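retry 2 of 3: previous attempt timed out while embedding adenosine-5'-triphosphate. Reduced batch size to 1 and resubmitted. Inputs unchanged:
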Amino acid sequence: MTDQQGSTNNTSRYDEELNAERDYVATLYGRLDGLRAEKQEQLTRIQAQGLQGSYQNQSERDSFANLYQDRINQLNAVDDRLVFGRLDTDDNASRHIGRIGLSDDQRTRLLVDWRAPEAASFYQATAANPRGVERRRHIMMTGRTVESFEDDVLNPGEHEASQALLSAVSAPRTGVMGDIVATIQQEQDAIIRDQMRGVLVVQGGPGTGKTAVALHRAAYLLYTHRDRLAKNGVLLVGPSEAFMNYIDQVLPSLGETGVVMSSVGNLYPGIVSVGEVQPEIAEIKGRAIMQKVVENAVSLRQRSIPETTWVHVDGIDLRVRPSQIRRAIRHARESERPHNQAREVFVDHMVRMLYDQLRDIVSPKRQDGLVNKADRSYLRQEIRQATDVRRLLNMCWMPLSPTGMIDELLSKPKYLVDAAPMLSADEIRLLLRAPGHAFTESDVPLIDEAAVALGDLVDEAPEATQSWKQRNLDTAEAALDNMHYTLEDIGVDGVVTAEMLAAAQEPETTWGSVADRARADRTWTYGHVIVDEAQELTHMQWRMLFRRSPLRSFTIVGDLAQASGAYANTDWGTVLEPFAGTNWRLSELTVNYRTPARITDAAAAVAKRAGRPVTTPKALRQGEFPPQLIHTDATAQHDSLLQVIETQLKRIPGGLVGVISTEQDSQQLAQVLNSHYPDRVWTGTGRRRHRDVALATAQQAKGLEYDAVVIIEPQHIVAAAGGAVGDLYVAMTRATQTLTMITTATEDQLPAGLDDI
Ligand SMILES: Nc1ncnc2c1ncn2[C@@H]1O[C@H](COP(=O)(O)OP(=O)(O)OP(=O)(O)O)[C@@H](O)[C@H]1O
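retry 2 succeeded.
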């Protein structure tokens, strides 16, 4: 009786508090709607003014219109589950925590932005260190409705995961990543709020929230360093377009839209690259020596002639000796400008030399007045434009585009052999391909490298970019003075030049947003760069990325055990040494939120047996179902697959089954799945809608997750990666609930560790 009475009392107290929370949350939505209406009205008013007034008035109006529109977009984006927490502290204060900060007309704070210092205790208070928190409340919402709440007890000795966290990690996956703002855990929060300067490496096993942390850190940095980052922007780089699609809703749901997001293969403006099918080729193109190969390739396009020749200018023959060209080349190289700019020095030198000859022929006695200033300029022009001269100058020092040069380098055997004496004949054969081949993702760093060595073609860059760059160069000194910390501090002394810092200056506001301009400009330097799945990157890719933040402000997240290639790096120190020396710091994530322990243990066993450096994170959930290995013969394989899919779809209503295989096996699987599940097969691009069977290669599945994973022929995945188990390890750890593997191999053909399942 007492119990019943007690529980009735508790229930009614809970309901009362729930209603109170609902009332408060309704006030917050009232405020959100009010603000939105206000901005909408301001926007409508400014749009109604149309195209009147001077150019300056119009451009001011455009800026305001953009500002209002951005704010409206932000308010729309945070509408879903606006509030998720409440903190009651020992000073009798109580604050609600949400996606953005809100105040009323009297500037009384109604809602604290999760990134504000006052919200930090929501994530950091623990039983051992409550930080003045008496009660931490998780408010669970669907859309605008408060469904329930849960209070954390900060009692010493209690370390249980909150219900909010458990329901978040157990929920069926939608196929696109969601934010974790309501349930960020303490070790994650410490990384998100870490200082911006320097290179921070976040190492963590599969499912530890590295991607989630990277995205929330981007939002946190933009909030905390808004002024600085508004000028330079933040770049977030991931491994593939499918991955970028998977994560691209997270930042908008946090009210941030200004981050430049790009796969590493599409980082060079104007190039949409294709995958590099053969890992051996990717490995060669990623080697540090490729920098020298590109440099050589440029030098080989600065060449003299084998013997003396004659050029025809205005009916007169002028002689050109190889030694004269060599001298002009030396001169141009000494200018230390990029190839296309140094060409001007070369051309000037040659024209001057030819002019001297011509003048001596036209007017042997300099004092006779025949060659005055106007004549001189006319004659030089004539020489420069003479067909023979142009042909000769181009032959000796051709203006080059980075894409044109890399295309030639990879398709002309002699050019490649001369530029890459350090590569073996087999390696050269691997690199060679037909001219005009689509650029692959491992060509992109070579193109970027070439772009640095070549410089812009003189008429290549749009005028706006040029004038903006010039203006920045003029004031680059000031950028150095304005740095908030000394260069020595961050270990880049002597490396930063005025040119590199030029882009840190106040940009023109006449075209596009910072993100648009940054995306279009290969020389843009960002205020901060975040690299996800960083274990995959080659030396050449790192060079390309470090060029984009000369101040070395980086967050690098990855898991060395998940690297694919046989050449994979085994420690961050070796990877980063050439770029940051020892000036980097390491944080680790230790809890796996995605994959149940039963599955991670099996995956870790495979990785360990292959000698990979695995740090097995502690899985938050034990999992209901052990991983399964099904042996079948080739004829029964597809039936077996369909059966597994059916079982899994029933087991996880609304869930997503991910079928993972090699590229080669995936073609046949696509046919089978499409014919059995018409309009239900999802390849990761476009919207998922009602599609519930996903098909991906092990490479494409990097960073993604599925409720049920079915791996077809695990031994093929290892063989396709040249014997490395990284890809298989990744595939096995994509599961949030169940893992099944289907194989036609015999026990002894399976990768070590799998036979124990
Ligand atoms: N604090 C958290 N609250 C709720 N869900 C979380 C939390 N941290 C991570 N998750 C969820 O766990 C899953 C794995 O996270 P994420 O993809 O960021 O991990 P990862 O370390 O990048 O994984 P991998 O290296 O295997 O690709 C995601 O569904 C993510 O939303």
